[in-house]
Structure to design on (479 residues):
């Protein structure tokens, strides 16, 4: 053993000596010369001598604009609005195509197949009208926005802009007792709150990371955008002239999103002064150089690591939700379905909040996925009102072909402008979906903080909608 070790050592020494002669006798001189040459080149770019015209530096010039106190925030809001607009507008066509495929083609095929093989009606309804339709809705509504939003978000990250967002918002989050990097996790939450919770890993401080996790639900995820857009279009856009309707609807939705950001700051400040007291940590934020985004790598990373993983979690939770929706709509007690019993029980409390029992039941059964709130509301409204000519039967989620039909059905269910406004507020302020709740538990490892993150937004939603309803009705009474 000693002889082999000695031989190995001699071989290493001989190899080192031979390599030393191969690199040349002046290797060290060339190495030091290259280091000083690079240093001189860097200094030449950074130093402006008296009388010389300042050299153009792309990174510094762009940073003077995107991180300035005057233009920094408007550019940031504009870029985020462009990303949201591209996400919402770009997702309309593929979402419609997926909905047509799943609902108009595959669903009838499965129904015919079940009839041909003699499947019992209850099993047909549970599997196809319940589980399958819930899964189909989640995929058709959730997949296209995520497939657009996450690559766009990652492109901004690769380009080097997101660290500038954290730089711009650092002072505001620091005043709220939170971490500047919370700006990044909050922005990610606009695509998916579960992904936003995972993104809080970039925050080193456990206290500040917990604040970011609890408040991430105030960022409107893509599952809530369809609800916001539809309700704003049906009830708020119609208040303006036709050529301004789209702008008014979009402004209302953006207003709700900005309200969520404001509540993020207020809640972060409250938590940092009460349950999560502590010193605000400092961090060195190095602004990386701008660089061309890597398109294909970005698409691959966004689709595999973010979109498909989050979508899979949502589908896993949506399938049992579809079963529950079908069961409560079809199992009757004293000739009345469980869903109708729940709606009648919750309706007085819902009306007190400026909502109704249908909305509350829809949000209870749609906890696994926000994407199925609207089809659940429509299905339950048909169930309660007995409207004819719409839907395919009890417990079957559907989509009406025109906004006029949707508005007419909701008004038949007693909806008013107050109902619509409070639904938009409650869509912002309610419990996270089950995918996000599960992710919060996995990230925190604490059932207590998971419960706080799940229940705090609901209590805020009840409080806000209650006061809005009372003030609204008081003003109506005075007028």
């Amino acid at each position: 053993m000693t002889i082999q070790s000695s031989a190995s050592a001699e071989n290493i020494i001989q190899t080192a000596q031979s390599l030393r002669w191969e690199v040349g006798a002046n290797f060290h001189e060339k190495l030091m010369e290259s280091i000083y040459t690079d240093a001189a080149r860097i200094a030449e770019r950074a130093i402006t001598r008296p009388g010389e015209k300042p050299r153009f530096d792309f990174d510094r010039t762009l940073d003077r604009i995107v991180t300035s106190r005057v233009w920094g925030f408007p550019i940031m809001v504009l870029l985020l609005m462009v990303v949201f607009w591209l996400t919402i507008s770009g997702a309309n066509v593929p979402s419609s195509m997926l909905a047509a495929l799943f609902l108009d083609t595959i669903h009838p095929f499965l129904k015919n197949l079940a009839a041909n093989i003699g499947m019992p009606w209850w099993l047909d309804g549970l599997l196809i009208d319940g589980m399958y339709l819930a899964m189909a809705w989640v995929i058709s509504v959730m997949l296209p926005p995520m497939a657009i939003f996450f690559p766009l978000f990652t492109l901004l990250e690769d380009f080097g802009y997101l660290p500038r967002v954290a730089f711009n918002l650092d002072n505001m989050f620091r005043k709220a007792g939170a971490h500047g990097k919370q700006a990044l996790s909050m922005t990610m939450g606009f695509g998916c709150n579960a992904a936003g919770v995972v993104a809080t890993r970039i925050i080193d401080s456990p206290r500040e990371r917990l604040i970011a996790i609890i408040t991430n639900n105030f960022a409107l995820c893509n599952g809530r955008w369809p609800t916001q857009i539809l309700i704003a279009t049906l009830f708020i856009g119609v208040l303006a002239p036709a050529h301004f309707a789209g702008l008014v609807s979009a402004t209302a939705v953006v207003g709700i999103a900005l309200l969520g950001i404001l509540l993020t700051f207020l809640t972060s400040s409250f938590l940092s002064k009460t349950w999560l007291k502590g010193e605000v940590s400092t961090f060195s934020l190095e602004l990386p150089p701008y660089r061309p985004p890597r398109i294909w790598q970005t698409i691959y990373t966004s689709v595999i690591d973010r979109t498909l993983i989050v979508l899979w979690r949502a589908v896993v939770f949506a399938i049992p939700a579809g079963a529950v929706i079908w069961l409560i709509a079809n199992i009757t007690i004293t000739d009345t379905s469980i869903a109708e019993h729940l709606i009648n029980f919750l309706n007085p409390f819902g009306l007190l909040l400026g909502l109704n029992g249908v909305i509350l039941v829809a949000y209870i059964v749609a906890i696994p996925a926000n994407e199925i709130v609207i089809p659940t509301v429509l299905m339950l409204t048909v169930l309660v009102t007995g409207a004819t000519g719409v839907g395919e039967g009890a417990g079957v989620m559907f989509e009406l072909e025109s906004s006029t039909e949707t508005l007419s059905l909701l008004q038949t269910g007693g909806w008013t402008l107050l109902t619509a406004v409070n639904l938009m507020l409650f869509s912002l302020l309610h419990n996270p979906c089950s995918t996000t709740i599960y992710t919060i538990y996995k990230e925190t490892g604490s059932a207590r903080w998971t419960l706080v993150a799940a229940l705090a937004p609901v209590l805020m939603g009840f409080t806000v909608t209650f006061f809005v309803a009372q003030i609204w009705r008081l003003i109506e009474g005075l007028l």
